[in-house]
Amino acid sequence: MKLMHKLPLLFLLFFAVLLGTSFAGEFRVYPGAQQRNDLGGTASGPLERSLVEEFREENLKTLVYVTSDPFEKVVDFYAATGNRYRVGALERRRGKKLYSEGKKLEEAFFILDGAPDLWTSRLWVKVQNPLIEKVKGEALDREYQNIRNLTAIVLVDRRKSVQ
Question: What is the pTM for the complete model shown?
């Protein structure tokens, strides 16, 4: 008789696990976000690159979406579908002022395929505000250009099926 009382609970638990794994490794576009194909262009020089060029490598598909919604709202959306990953050096950069504009940089990373980190993940998302369309220079000598008051969603897909 006790097993009969636990059976619905076990069924519900099994269904929740099944539902959770069915969405693992999938990317969902943030509602209302628009794809920006123009951010995938090639660099005009070794010290100038676009947002997407930061992630260039073989078997890699990178897509950029933008929304006018606040950073925190987009972060909450991806927190429900992926595991937030905190990158030490990048977390220290969080909130740093972009000196050319005086705006603060906000970044968050989400692993969608269950990998332990970004380096082994085949599918992850970076959420960033504001949108920085161009970066010149390296490390401490960076100059950010074309800064837009938008939240960027960068999908990085390294799965083998990527063409």
Answer: 0.70
